[in-house]
Amino acid sequence: MKEINKTEIGRRGFLKTAMLAGAALTMPAGLNRVLAAKTNRVGEDRRAACIRGSRVLGTGAVAFEVSALGFGVMGMTYNRSQHPDKKQCVRLLHEAVDRGVTLFDTAIIYGPLTNENLVGEALSEFRERIAVTTKFGHEVIDGKATGRQDSRPQTIRRYCEESLKRLRLDSLPMFYQHRADPNTPPEEVASTIADLMKEGKVQRWGMCEVSAETIRKAHAICPLTAIQSEYHLMHRLVEENGVLNTCRELGIGFVPYSPINRGFLGGCINEYTVFAPNNDNRQTLPRFQPEAMRANMRIVNILQAFGRTRGMTSAQVALGWLLQKAPWIVPIPGTTKLSHLEENLRATEFTLLPEEWKELENAVEAIPVVGERYNTEQQRQVVF
Questions:
Q1: How far, in Å, CA of 311 to CA of 126, rounded?
Q2: In the predicted model, what is the mean pLDDT of residues 169-190?
Q3: What is the pLDDT of residue 18?
Q4: 10, 99, 101, 193: most buried by Cβ count inside 10 Å?
Q5: Which residues on neighbouring strands pair with residue 176, listed in sequence order?
Q6: What is the pTM of this model?
Q7: In what order do the strands lie in the sheet with 205-208?
Q8: Residue numbers annotated as active site
Q9: CA pair distance 327, 23, nearest whole angstrom
Q10: What is the pLDDT of residues 312-361, one digit of tens each?
C-alpha cells in the first residue's frame, strides 16, 4: 500500500528527538527550562512536536475550542505506579503548554485531591492560555474515597467550590459528572450545573460513562459540551450503544479517556510488568492479568506492523485512529515522560486514507479481546 505520511522527521529522527527530550527531564530545573525555551516552544524548532490545530467540543453557547489532543494528568499522582517527583511533573506540564496543548484533565477522585492540587500549582499561571477540566461524583470524605457516588445538588456545589480553590481558578472551564449517582436523576444534576453556570462558577459541563438515554435527559435541561468515556481499538462500546451517534446528533463533543488502553497499546506493558501494589489500578483489572495481556499482545503486534510501514509507533496508530473518527473527538492521553509526550503529539501529523484505517480495524476485529476492562464493582458504576 502506498505510503502517504508526510511528517517532517523519520523514525530515526523521532528516536533522536525523544532521547534528547528524555534527557532534559534529568537536568536541573533551571537548565531544563532554558533548553525548553530554546528548542521546544511552538514554532521555534520544527523538529519538536507541537500541536498547531484545534478542535471544537460542543456547539452554540457551550462550544469549547481546544487543542486536537489533550493531556490526562491522572497518572502523575494516581493509579499509574511510579511517577516523577512534583518538580518534574510541573516541568512536563509546562512543556505540554509550550507545545500547544490547551486541554488538561483532572478529577477530585485522583489522589484523591492530590491531582487537582498539582494542576493548580503547575498550571494556574497559564489560565489565559489553557483550560483545565475536572470532575465530581465520587464521594470523598476527609480526603478519602468512600466508593460511593454523590451528585446531590449541595454536594455538587461544595465540590465546585473546593475544586476552584485547589485549581486556583475563578471559574471552571468544564465540570464533568465523573460517574452517575443512582440516587440523583440526571435532570437534577443538569439543573444544578445550570445554576452554577448562571453564577459564573462553571462555564460548561460534561458527563462520563453514561448511556445515550441519560445524555438526552441531561442535555434537555442544560446543554452538554462533551461526553467522556473509554474508547480505543480494544474497547469500542460507544460505537454500539448509541453514545457516539447521540453526540453526533446533539452536537456534543466526545473525549476518549485511556485512548492507548492504559498504556497497553503503546507496547511497553506485557505479562511480566509489575505494577505498584498501592498505586496502580491496572493490577485489579481483568484485562491486565498476565494471561490476558499475553493473549491481547497480538493486537499490539497488529498496530506495530501497521505503523512500521508508515513511520508510526503503535501508540501513534492508536491515537491517529481516534483522531480520524470525527473532528469533534479529542483524546486525552496521559504520560509522565517527555519522550512519550513527543510521541503522542506526533500522532496529529499523520494523514492516512480511510481504507487504510479500515484495514487496521478489520485486522484488530479478527482478534478477540481477552478479559473485561473493569472488575465487577467498577463495571457496576458505568451501566447508567
A1: 34
A2: 97
A3: 44
A4: 193
A5: 135, 206
A6: 0.86
A7: 71-72, 103-105, 131-136, 174-177, 205-208, 226-230, 253-257
A8: 110
A9: 34
A10: 999 999 999 999 999 999 999 999 999 999 999 999 999 999 999 999 99
Question: Is residue 44 scored above 60 in pLDDT?
Answer: no
Q: Which residues pair with 202 in a beta bridge?
A: 172
Domains and CATH numbers, the chain: 11-380 (3.20.20.100)
Cα separation of 24 and 380, whole Å? 43
User: For the chain, what is the HEC assignment?
Assistant: CCCCCCCCCCHHHHHHHHHHHHHHCCCCHHHHHHHHHHHCCCCCCCCCCCCCCEEEECCHHHCEEEECCCEECHHHCCCECCCCCHHHHHHHHHHHHHCCCCEEECCCCCCCCHHHHHHHHHHHHHCCCCEEEEEECEEEECCEEEEEECCCHHHHHHHHHHHHHHHCCCCECEEEECCCCCCCCHHHHHHHHHHHHHCCCECCEEEECCCHHHHHHHHHHCCCCEEEEECECCECHHHHCCHHHHHHHHCCEEEEECCCCCCHHHCCCCCCCCCCCCCEHHHHCHHHCHHHHHHHHHHHHHHHHHHHCCCCCHHHHHHHHHHCCCCCECCCCCCCCHHHHHHHHHHHHCCCCHHHHHHHHHHHHCCCCCCCCCCHHHHHCCCC
Question: Which tens digits make up the pLDDT trace of 241-257?
Answer: 999 999 999 999 999 99
- For residues 76-93, give the mean pLDDT: 87
Displacement of CA 122 from its chain's centroid (Å): 18
Buried b (16+ CB within 10 A) or exposed e, 48-86: bbbbeeebebbeeebebebbbbbbbbbbbbbbbbebbee
